[in-house]
Design brief:
GO terms for molecular function: ATP binding; ATP-dependent peptidase activity; metalloendopeptidase activity. Keywords: Membrane, Transmembrane, Transmembrane helix. This protein is mainly alpha-helical. The protein folds into two domains: 175 residues, Methane Monooxygenase Hydroxylase, Chain G, domain 1; 64 residues, no CATH class. It is 65% helix and 4% strand. A two-stranded antiparallel sheet has the order 1-2. α5 runs antiparallel to α7. The longest helix has 22 residues.
Length: 255
């Protein structure tokens, strides 16, 4: 099999309905929660901030004189500042949460699995890879295709190209769903897919959008599951900061 010669049919020819049962049969865990953004990292970060400042505030309350009043007040205000930053500049708070998330033992492995899936599926369906990163807070895989870029920016994506981009966009989500009970990194992927949908013509209905999302998870998950050795080899190469060319060589060697 030539790895780069996998074709996708236009959306109109893809299954009319992709049920959650089909995704579960594929091996996707908790398929019903795939489109629900995970709050695990956010909740852990905020709980830690509030819990730590609360504990320190109680200890500071034992200080003599006015210090026992002002220091707990200042410490307690940290939680309010964090919430204020989240309201005014969500990006800064998200960066802090991403850095904090490194405390989870599975987080770096999740990133590698997620981004390797984007890379592998992009490669398998013939989309050139420009670069990638597994750095926390900067995780990405960038594709390069001048024709697609023009179609996206002009809002002229047709059904065939939307299919291809949808599968790549949902690949990371699918890879996490096959391995873990909860998917943590789906928010950015869903946002990316919605951006592609908004740039397509003709526009598709809400029901079609939902089915496209599920179908893309199914297709991407099937490719990942059927090419497990390639995916794992790519995860290792990316984790070792291999170049894009070296990553492609790892894929082809594993094949």
């Amino acid at each position: 099999m030539e790895l780069s010669a996998i074709c996708l049919s236009p959306y109109g020819q893809s299954p009319s309905q992709t049920s959650l049962r089909v995704l579960t049969t594929l091996g996707i865990k908790n398929a019903e929660n795939l489109a629900i953004p995970s709050v695990r990292n956010d909740a852990a970060f905020l709980f830690t901030v509030v819990g730590t400042t609360g504990f320190l505030g109680v200890l500071a309350g034992q200080l003599p004189g006015d210090w026992g009043f002002f220091v707990p007040y200042l410490i307690g205000s940290i939680s309010l500042v964090v919430l204020a930053v989240g309201s005014i500049s969500p990006g800064l708070l998200q960066a802090a949460i991403s850095g904090f998330s490194a405390v989870f033992p599975d987080y770096q492995e999740r990133i590698a699995r997620h981004e390797a899936a984007h890379f592998l599926i992009g490669y398998l369906i013939g989309l050139p890879i420009l670069d990638y990163s597994l750095d926390i807070g900067k995780e990405h895989v960038n594709l390069i295709d001048e024709k697609l870029e023009k179609l996206i920016y002009s809002g002229q994506l047709d059904a065939k190209e939307l299919d291809r981009l949808a599968v790549v966009a949902m690949a990371g989500l699918a890879a996490e769903g096959l391995q873990y009970d909860k998917v943590v990194g789906q928010s950015a992927d869903l946002f990316t897919l919605q951006r592609f949908i908004n740039r397509s013509k003709p526009q598709i209905s809400k029901d079609q959008q939902q089915n496209l999302t599920r179908w893309a998870v199914l297709f991407g998950g099937s490719l990942i599951k059927n090419n497990k050795s390639l995916h794992e080899a790519l995860m290792t190469a990316m984790s070792n900061k291999a170049t894009v060319l070296e990553c492609i060589q790892a894929i082809e060697k594993a094949a």
